[in-house]
Structures are given as structure tokens and as C-alpha cells.
Amino acid sequence: MALRRKFTFELPEDSYWNESDSNSSGLFDDLQSKQLQARAAVDNLFGGEETPKPYVPPQNPSPTPGNGVPPKIDVRAAAASDKANIRLTDTSPRASGKIVDDFLNMKFSDSVKAAPIMQSAPSVVSEASASSLPSEAQRLDLDYNRLRQEHRKLKDQHEVLRHERFQPLTIEASIKRMLQGHVVPLDGYRSLRDKTLLLKQAVMSYDTNTIFKIIIFLERTLKENIFFKVMDEQKSACRVYTRHLQITGEWEKMNKFLRGVGQYQHASVIEFESTRKYKKNPDKRVPLLRTMLHGSFSIPEMKFEARQVETLMRNYEIQLQMEKMDAGGKGEHFRKFPKTCTLIGLPALSTLYYSVMYHFDDASTSSASLPSVQTLIRFNDRLAMQTIVSALTRQSRWPDIDKLLQPKTITMTFSAAKSVFKGKKTTSKWGVSINNHNLLTIIRRSHPSPPTDFIYRILKGESDAQERLRLALLFDAPEMVIECMTQKGDRVSLASYAKSLKPNSVESFKAVAALNNPSIKWK
Amino acid sequence: MAPGTAELEIDETLHLLRMLMQREFIHYLETLPGTKELFIDKCLLRPLDMIATSSDMKRHGVKRIMHFDLKKSPQVWNLEIDQRVFFLRPNVDNARKIVEYAEEANDNRSICVIWCNRQLEECDLVFESSGVIGNITQLSLNMCLLPLESDLFSLQHVESAQPDLFSVANMFVALQNLYGVIPTVYGLGAEPKQLWNLVHTLCSSNELRARPDQPISHLFLFDRQLDPIPVLLTGASYEGLLHEFFNIDCGKLAFPVDMRKQVPAGPLDFDWLEINPEEDEEAHLQNRGDVVKLDNCEDIFASIRNKHVTAALEFLHAKAKSIQKSIEKSAMIDDVADYRNFVEKDLRALKKDHKHCELHINACEMMMNKVKMEDYRTMFKLEHEMLLGTVTQEEYFDFVFERVPMRSCRDIVLSMMSLASLKLDGVPDDTYNEFVEMYLQKYGYEHMFELQNLRCSRVIYARRHTTQDRTISERAKIWDTLARKFRIVKGNEPMDMSNPSDMSYVFGARISPLLCKIVEDTIDHGWNQSEYERILGKEKVLVEENTYIAADRRPDNRTRKAIMVFINGGITYWEVAALRLLAIQKNFRILICTTHIIKKRDYLGARAQDASSVFGL
After folding, report:
1. Is A273 part of the contact surface with chain B (CB cutoff 8 Å)?
2. How many CB atoms lie within 10 A of CB B115?
3. Chain A contacts of B166, Cβ < 8 Å?
4. What is the CATH classification number for the domain harbouring B569?
5. pLDDT one-digit tens code per residue, A146-176
6. Which of B195, B198, B405 is nearest residue A349 as measured by Cβ atoms?
């Protein structure tokens, strides 16, 4: 701060410097001619090569080593201006010998380019003036020149400082400084061209933090549509920005942005996602979904997704009805399997499971019954089947499962007929849609202790003997294991298996009996 | 194995990085005046363990060390604490929580945050908008390569779809500052090229010098995007399986308590109730047993970690028998002096071995059991056939769709679908539609967002998407060409699993990890620059020579220098095992470095949640 005040020439006490430069006072008018004469003399002396030129600010100064001051350029510039000016001041005709000396010194220091000794020009000057013992007029002359020179130096310095302060760095330099973790003021970049370049350069740095800084700056200073246009050209910048919006949870803004850069499909999904917070609150969500269906989901690319949203709405419908119906939670099923939470907002398959769990015996006209759920939501057959089996297993309704597993029961024929009608898939797939491994896994996972004869029956249905043995071992059905092994005539494995069984249990007796049975043909 | 002397040297030298970080951390603690309370992000606890001990911290004024919990509100300041220091990952949630803390603090109490890896603008914005930015001292600490093992180093990044190149580049700058310029650098993929550019930008102010004692001769930089297959497959090396099932964190693992139970406890696969992931996590945490350190210091684990799990189990059984025998033998000792000698010397070691043996046998059996239950065998077969191209698609997708309604198989479903997407370059349209429909019906329509993100991340997509956007299939094409060039997928060739002859053993002798195969090819034949440029395009291949040895010359193991393999975006334990085998086979020292150890679930999870994926990779 102190530095700045020192160089502010607008202050009244400094105003002298501003004026004195432009118009030279009449008192020293003739001095100019004297100087010119002196200069001519010196020129003659040295063959006119070294004509001092009027001061031109250095265009592209290279920084001198050894300067501790931050604005390196201006000291060098000042030094350069000193060199030019010293010649001027010392060219009084009588002191020509001294001048020559000085000049020679100058030449010397000129050739030794990097010499940092030129830092304080005034001292050089005063040295010269003291040694030459000048008259009063000459002293004035010298003083004037010295001061003028000093002023010029300070002014240059000021110019450079002001340049540094009020002119932005080059874009490359800014980005580089940012990468190094410095604070860089971006307010200097006001033109759109600068901003675009800034973003481009940031993207080239591959550093997400730098890119983010620039994006935030652009977002703050540009109108929305222009901001989107600038962003649209830099995909990785879009990425950083979207991620930021996601983290801060600004879905609205993200939706707008995605539309702004032409990602309509993604924007629709984002819009859908932003209704997630109303998951348990269909009163708020369903109207939103309805408007969405007419709005962003109505484009042809989103047809498939739109269908899903429609299903979701129907799912809510069923769930609301079921909740209303079971509000009291009375009934045998609820006593056996207490309902712990609300159904609303759960996935469609949960609705199906719930229906099987609590409303399997309802009349098919009831809105909660399995057929009516399946008419409203078209479930994937395989998915539905597995879910129904699981729910029935949980309730230990083995006969119902049996019925279900027989091909062409009522529920299945219904959906099968539908698929035939659509001409999509053949109904023959139905019989194998749930393989035995899978079926057993489901049963095992859904029931703590399924009856052994039921598992035995399923295993019996497995046609591949190898697979049957594997499954029997995996799902722990000793009877079937013994049967398989005796069938194969594998005495060694059976013997070892018998050992692993609990001694004195029914199974181990059976195994021993099989081993002792003479009618079996062992290998 | 590589000779002992060279090994020792490298072990000690790469320690410099860690020491640097340790010094910096201690320095930060020293510069903060007064008594301190240290709050640590949960994911930084273990890494910090490797950097500074608690006695170190105590010596520098840390009175208490606590977890930084996002759910808890800030506690009242303890009277004797002057300063609260936070060691956190830079993210918005953490920053918001810090604001709460800052609002609580009064004038003579101060707050300092040490961000690992760097201070981010996002957090600054949170502080600024809450008006606390001046009240918080912010420092940053760049994570170094933490040695998980003498040949495995990790930066411990958090899985994310947008990798943090900057801190990786920073690490490489530090590495080269300490050890000199790495002579030869190879890179494949877009990210390595960007990464190395960034390294150069960050280095531009100080010229790095080449040093003759540089311990690393070659550096391979890979992009995870180049080969996502190992992440999607389930391998068979013991350590990898442990990570997949129980999650190894920074070289440590908490085995579950109820490992002996046949059926893993957990929510039912089929139920209409929804699982609350938080509750699930809580149950998981309660089920955690003691934390075991897994490294080469423990003999049993050291000998089985890279083995095929069947070979490992065999080994364990044999070991158990031998331990039993030694104990039995002790019963026959008659001489009292001998017996005392035995008790003093051997008994303890035997007991320890016995305990470890039991632990690993239990773990093995539990995993094998799960593998059987979920019908992994069929899955392996189908996955292999899919990559080989001989599978009937109907069979493959039937298997997948059967598993959609089972909650416990969710990862399998997603990984198999993404495998199919990559190999077939988009699954057939109606298969995709059916899958999406089923998935939404099972897991809720809210997952439309996730499936959309997975599609944009090019993980699971349909064929129609590739016709809309040609760039999607680029990755699949590159992978396919490289896979064919290196013959990654093999037929069913028998291999002795206890003594594997090829890297493919990690995937049951059927599939080799592509990136490891590239390293092997370079060791054997030198770097094939023009070939890679032809396949990947010029802008995705990086070669840098900082030495007079030409870059296409193959590495020479007589120079006793290490090869560093860095995979940006995470490495799997399967690849680690493969590279270890390669190091033994070729008699090279291979330093395996990565941003983090990756896991199937995290990989898919991070991509499913990333809405920004729509702008490409």
C-alpha cells in the first residue's frame, strides 16, 4: 500500500512531477542547445556511432538475475533509461574528459550485459556532478536533469506496476499459476474470447480443480445461454460441472444445463431422478410423473423409458389400494407374518410378493389378488414365477407350489397365452424356465427347514444323474445322495459319505443298509 | 526371486516418499500451536497408520484422536483443547460438516483442516458461502505411494468415475525429485498421456535430473479403461477372493465372526421388504471379528496369498496336518529339559500357526461354499465361453436373468451384463430391454438413473446405442484387437494349479489379464510402438526416453533395476498375482503401483452413480 501511495502522481504534492516533464521552463531553454553541442563533440570523438537515442521503453526485456524486487522488468528498464540519460546529463563541454571516462565505463558495462551494478542511477550522477565542481547554473542544470531522470524512472516503474496490477496475466500463465495452487484473479478476463480461451486452456491442463474454478467464474459472469454455448464445446468441462451439480444436489439446474447442451434424453432421466425424494409420497410424485410423461418423456427416443414410468404409476395405484384394504392389518396371514412397514414406494416385484403373501386366497375379482396384479403390471414370466414360489415357500404352502410347477396352471396359461397372442415366444419354454438348481436355491433361501420329501421330489425330477448327485450334495439331501451313489455303484464314495453322516441317524442306517445290500452291483 | 541386495535397496529407497509425507504431516502438527484434537476421515485411518504412529502424534500435542463422523453433530469443546485438526478427503459433505464445527468454535479456539490430497475449490466455495473461510486454516497433504507390500504400492484413492490425475501427477513429481528421472516411460490409453503431460507441467519450474542410481528402469502407465475385464471377472487367487468377499483395506482385514456358518446370514433374496443399505452395513460391522494384518511377515498367508484357491486349501490342509503332528510329537517327549525347550521355543509358534491355519481354512471353506451355492462354476464357464465367443447367447442370458430376482446375485448380474456388452459390443436390443424391465421391477424404478449412467459409462449398453453414437464401441474394438493379438482367452488347457506356468492361472487357466500380458510382451520382445499406435491411435500411446537406451529395446534384468507398473484407476488382486508370477518367471523386480485396489462392486457402483458420464470418458 505504501508503495502505491508513493507513486500516485494524482496527489497534489506530486503534481509537480506531472507538469515538469512536458514543458521545459524558459530558464533552461538554452541548456538544450548546450547539450546538443556537447553531444556533437562527443559524437565526433567517437565517430558518431553512439548517438544517444531518445528513450524508448524496452519492448521485451529479459529479466536480469540478482534483482530481488518482484517486478523484475522495470528495474532493468530503469537501468536502460539511466544509461541513455547519463550521457545527456554529463555532456557539459568542459567536463568532456570526465565524460569520455564515463562513456568508456558505460561501454564497458554495456558489453558486460548482466551486471547488476546499474541499480542506482542517481548516485552515479551525483558523483559526476560533485567531481566536476560546476557553477551555479550548471548545478541547477544537473539537478534538473537528475530529478527529471528520477521522475522518468519512477514513472516507468509505476507503469510496469500498474500494468501488472490492472492488466491480467496471459491466459497460459494464469492457468499455470492455478495449477501450482496460487490464487489468480480472473476479473481481468472480460471478453468472451478470453473466457472461451481460458476454459480451453483449463481443459488442456487436465486438472479438474482448475477446470472447476474456471467454470464457476464463467457461470457467474455469463448469461445462461452463452455459458451453455461456451461449455458445449468442452466436454470434459461439462463433465466436471455436472458432477458438481450432482454433488450439491442441484437437480433443477442440472436438468436445465443438460437441455442447454443438447442432452435431452439424459435430462429426462435426471428429471425423473429428482422425484426420488417423493418415493414414499405418491400423492406428490404421481402428478409430477404425469406431467413428465406428457413433457420430456414424450420424445420418441424415450418411448421405452416412458413405458417404465407408466408401470411405476400403475404400481403406485395397486399399492395404494392394497394399503387401504389392509389398513387394519387383521387376518390370519398378518398374525403369522406381521407386516412391519408400508408397501408404498417399494418395487413392483415387492407388490407381487406382497400379494402372494397376504392375498393369495382372495377371489380373482379382488384388486389385490394375484391375477389382477398381473393384469395391471406385465411382469417378466421368469421373475414372477421365482417370486411366487419364494413367497409360497415362506408360507410352507407346498401343494400350491406343486400346482404352480406343473405346466399350464391358470396363472401361467394366462400370461403364456398373452405371449402367444403377441407371437413372441413359444410356451414350451415354460416348463424349463426355472431350473432345479435355482428352484432349490430359492426354497432353501426362503424357508428355514423345507420338508425333505419335497426336496427329494424336486431332485427326482432332475434328469441328469450327475447333476442330481451334485445338487443332492449341495442342498444336503442324504437320501438322494445314497440313492444316486447306489445307482452309480460307487461304493467308495458311498462309504466315505456314510462316515460323514451323523452316527445312528436314519440316514446313516440307510447308507449302511445300502452298503450291506448284496443285490447292488458295485463297480 | 530377485537377488536380495537389489530388493533391499529398493525397499529402503521407496520409503523416502513415505518419510516425506510423514515429515510433512508432523511439520503441520508442529506449526499448529497448542493442544490438539485430531479428527480423521474413516477412509484415511489405515493409511495414516502407515504414516504416523499415535505416539508420534501425541508427542506433537495431539491429545485425542477421533473418527470424523458425518452423522454426529460436533461435540462440545474440551477445555484443555486449543485446536481441532481434521484430516479429511476433500469433498462437499466433509466441508459442510466442517462448517458446523466452525460455527461452534469461538474466538480463541481454532480449526484446521488438512486435506488429503489437496484443497479443492468446491470446499472453498462451501466455506465461503457459509462465511467461515477466514476462520479455518487449510493445509493439504499429498498422499504418497503407501507400501501395502514390498512390491505393491497404492495411493489409496477412493473409487470414482472421475480419476484425480493431479495428485497422481504430484506423486510422480515427488518420486522423480527424490530418485531422479525415470529413464523409460511407456503409456497406453488417453489418461496416461494426460497424466504425463501434467507431470511435465508441474515439473517445468524445476528441472529433474537423471541419476545413475535411479532404482526404476521402466515405467508402464496404463488406463483401467483399456481392460475392464479383470474387474468384472472373479478370479481364483486366494488374496483376491478374500478382497472380493470380505474387503481387504490397506493390507488389513476383519474376518466375519460367523465364518463357520454354512449359509451366510443376510437379508433374504426374495422378500417384499426393502433392504436398508445402512442397516445392512451396520449388521456387517457388528459381524466383524478381529482385524488381521495380511502380509508376507506371516508365513502361512505369504505362501498362499497368490495361490489358486484350491491349491491354497490343499496347502492349508497339509500344513494343518503337519502342525498337528508336531504337537502330537511333543506328547511323546519324555525328557523334562526337552519338553521345556519345546514349550519355550516351538509351542508358541505352533499355536500361532495353528490359529492362522484355522482362520484361513474357515475363510476358504466359506468362500468355496458360496461359490458352490451361487453356481459360480456355471458362471465361470459361461463367462469364459462368452469371451471366447463360443457361447450361445440364449444360455448366457438365461443364466443372468435367472439371477436378477436374487438380491445376493446383483453384482454377478451387473458384471455379466457388462461383460456381454463389452464382448458383443452392445447386447441385443430386446435382451437389453428385457433386462432393464426386470431390473427395474426387482429393484425399483428409481434405478433407471443408475442404468442410464451405466449405459453412458459404456458399461452396460445395447446395440442400438452404438448405432446412435459411434464412439461407444471404440473401447470394445480396441479391447478385442488387443485381446486377439495377445491371445488372452484360451481354450480349456489343463494346468497344474499348485505350480502355475502362466499368468492365466488367476482366471482358472482360461483368461490372462491384458495389461499384464502387455508387460510380458515388452519384457520378451520390447515395446512395439507402431503396433500400439495402429491399434489405439497416436494420441493414446506414450513413449518417453530419458536415457540413451532406445525405448524399443527390451528391459534387461542384469541391470538389477525394477520395472514399475502403474495402473491408473485401480488394480485387481488377480492382476497383482499375475504380475508377481511374471516377476518370478522373468527374474525381474516389478513394483506394482496403483491408485487403489479395485473391487467389482465399487467399480460398478461408482459408475452407476455418476450422472456426468453422459459426456463421455
Report:
1. yes
2. 22
3. 179, 206-209
4. 3.40.50.1910
5. 999 999 999 999 888 887 777 778 899 899 8
6. B405
Q: What ipTM describes this predicted complex?
A: 0.91
- With a CB cutoff of 8 Å and minimum separation 6, the contacts of A331 are A358
pLDDT at A8 over 70: no
- Residue B284 Cα, gap to closest chain A Cα (Å): 19
Q: Is B99 in the same domain as B189?
A: no
Of A247, A341, A435, nearest to B92 by CB-CB distance is A247
Residue B597's DSSP bridge partners are B571
- Distance (Å, rounded) from C-alpha B276 to C-alpha B292? 28
Q: Does A238 touch chain B (CB under 8 A)?
A: yes
**pTM, rounded to two decimals:** 0.80
CATH number of domain containing B458: 1.25.40.850
B137 bridge partner residues: B112
Q: Identify which has the larger pLDDT, B235 or A63.
A: B235
Q: How many domains does chain B have?
A: 4
Using CB atoms, which residue from A180, A181, A243 is nearest to B162?
A: A243
Same domain, B139 and B75: yes
User: How close B159 comes to chain A (CA, Å)?
Assistant: 15
Contact A408, A381 (CB under 8 A): no
From the list B434, B445, B610, the residue facing A308 with the nearest CB is B445
Inter-CA distances, B414 with B232, B460, B603, B604, Å: 9, 8, 11, 8
Flag if B162 and A258 touch (Cβ within 8 Å).
no
- The DSSP line for A219-267 is HHHS-HHHHHHHHHT-HHHHHHHHHHHHHHT-HHHHHHHHHHTT-HHHH
B359: containing domain: 231-262+294-371
Same domain, B414 and B360: no
**CA of A270 to nearest chain B CA: how many angstroms apart?**
7
Which residue has 535411479 as its cell numbers? B214
Could you read off the pLDDT of B448-470 as tens digits, one per residue? 999 999 999 889 999 988 888 88
Nearest CA in chain A to B613: A239
Three-state DSSP class for A13?
helix
CA atoms within a 13 Å half-sphere pointing along the CA-CB vector of A373: 30
B270 with A240: Cβ contact below 8 A: no
Helix (H, G, I), strand (E, B) or coil at A270: helix
Rounded-to-integer distance, Cα B315 and Cα B350, Å: 16
Is A315 in Cβ contact with B445 (below 8 Å)? yes
